[in-house]
Amino acid sequence: MSAPTPAGPDPEGPGLQPPDFGRPSPALLARADRGYARFLAHTNQAPDTDGPDDTARNQ
Question: In this prediction, what percent of the chain has a pLDDT beyond 90?
């Protein structure tokens, strides 16, 4: 059997989700910025050409 249909509108209140549900927190944005900066720094570096694993290139 189904539940009865409420007679009025939904009651106002906090409900089950926090008020800022779906909005990233400042701490999460700062962490993402740091990770993206690390990614950019890693991809913009010149390749290491004088490392010990370059024996195939130097022959």
Answer: 27
